[in-house]
Specification:
Its cofactor is pyridoxal 5'-phosphate. By secondary structure, the chain is α/β, with parallel strands linked by helices. It contains 15 helices and 15 strands. A seven-stranded mixed beta sheet has the order 4-12-11-10-9-5-6, with helices on both faces. A two-stranded parallel ribbon has the order 1-14. Strands 2-3 form a two-stranded antiparallel sheet. Bound molecules: (2S)-2-hydroxybutanedioic acid (LMR). The site of (2S)-2-hydroxybutanedioic acid has 6 residues, from loops.
């Protein structure tokens, strides 16, 4: 009976926003969820999104069901954005017949289907692993985004952790990471954050990515990328996709989940994709058919609105270039508060503590190194809401609040 159902704990990330709403203190600050805010700490709808929506209204687009795999125009542009338009794996093969090139068949080596943003796309990939790789293990970084574990648990896919964060250097434990990937059973799935690692903000260097790819290839593992911040970490769509492209260029099979929540600010539209790169076009066709089969009983077919926005923005040169400017603006604002927070901490801290790790981290977040008790102090005493792993979302910080936040962090460190 329902009577026997126990109370679930609040979500470690989304639950923070609920607690923030209930607080009435005037200095309260929500640095929990990774959602971009303006300098006035208000949500931001991108101008290109409004323009795309106007275009959609003018056209009078209908609300018919999408196919199970989603909007074709979206699936095309999302794969192009990820892999690069000239990438061999998404180009149609041309066969030379006499003097003219004839496109004989579509030889996409990637199965791309629209997903319910990052989470829904990861969940679909997890279902594919559960069904077609029984007993396979997924290795996730320690730490990782809180929802990764939920996703694999619910899909009944085994997971274990590889070392990633080194608290002594507040940097990457590269040797630990490599050793753990080497020690995993051959043919494991290795979950990697394409850029702007969540929650640490610490990414491997391009040289380290090469070594990671070497080890994954040697072990016959399958890389599984979570790309939630393309364009948002560095401000460049290409730079932020370089890790994925490096693996794809080696001809490896891989899984890549994408989200447009952050880079297009489409949080509530739940728009993203899962891309499965296969070694042949034939395999990609079969994988796609199975992804559709998995999606149908889960949610039938995906929502259209966000997919149309993405297709309109990416597919229209004018809007595309405007989008890149807006993304740079958002990434730039985050970089500037990162710098200001760092300066405030250096000025206020009297013990000579080195805060330079804040500047080395990239993306929306900073991993402060605050433990649970210290994070509790941030919230209970200073009304600064954050996740209990010590992560703060700099996207929710304004210049005006940097000094206050620095006071809160210093007080909590010495607590
Ligand atoms: C975050 O990490 O804050 C975001 O990705 C939001 C979420 O769904 O957890």
């Amino acid at each position: 009976r329902f009577e026997n159902i126990t109370m679930a704990p609040p979500d470690p990330i989304l639950g923070v926003s609920e607690a923030f709403k209930a607080d009435t203190h005037e200095m309260k600050l929500n640095l929990g969820v990774g959602a971009y805010r303006t300098e006035d700490l208000q949500p931001y709808v991108l101008n290109v999104v409004k323009k795309a929506e106007n275009l959609m209204l003018e056209r009078g687009d209908n609300k018919e069901y999408l196919p199970i795999e989603g909007l074709a125009a979206f699936n095309k542009v999302t794969a192009e954005l990820l892999f690069g338009t000239d990438n061999q794996i998404i180009l149609q093969k041309k066969k030379r017949k006499s003097v003219i090139d004839v496109c004989v068949f579509c030889s996409l080596k990637v199965a791309t289907i629209q997903g319910l943003s990052g989470t829904g796309s990861l969940r679909l990939a997890a279902a594919l692993i559960e069904r077609y790789f029984p007993g396979a293990k997924v290795l996730i970084s320690s730490p990782t985004w809180g929802n990764h574990k939920n996703i694999f648990n619910d899909a009944r896919v085994q997971w274990s952790e590889y070392r990633y964060y080194d608290p002594n250097t507040v940097g990457l434990d590269f040797n630990g990471m490599i050793a753990d990937i080497k020690a995993a059973p051959d043919g494991s799935f290795i979950l990697l954050h394409g850029c702007a690692h969540n929650p640490t903000g610490i990414d491997p260097t391009p040289e380290q990515w090469e070594i990671i790819a070497d080890v994954i290839q040697e072990k016959n593992h399958i890389p599984f990328f979570d790309v939630a911040y393309q364009g948002f970490a560095s401000g460049s769509l290409d730079t932020d996709a370089s890790s994925v492209r490096l693996f794809a260029a080696r001809g490896m099979e891989l899984l890549v989940a994408q989200s447009y929540s952050k880079n297009l600010g489409l949080y509530a539209e739940r728009i993203g994709a899962i891309n499965v790169v296969c070694s042949t076009a034939d395999a990609a066709t079969r994988v796609k058919s199975q992804l559709k089969r998995l999606a149908r009983p889960m949610y039938s077919n995906p929502p259209v609105h966000g997919a149309r926005i993405v297709a309109n923005v990416v597919g229209n040169p004018e809007l595309f270039s405007e989008w890149k400017d807006e993304m740079e603006m958002m990434a730039g604002r985050i970089k500037s508060v990162r710098q200001k927070l760092y300066s405030s901490l250096c000025t206020k801290e009297k013990t000579g503590k080195d805060w330079s790790f804040i500047l080395k981290q990239i993306g929306m977040f900073s991993f402060t190194g605050l433990n649970k008790a210290q994070s509790d102090n941030m919230t209970n005493k200073w009304h600064v809401y954050m996740t209990k792993d010590g992560r703060i979302s700099l996207a929710g910080l304004s210049s005006a609040k940097c000094e206050y936040l620095a006071d809160a962090i210093i007080d909590s460190y010495h607590n």
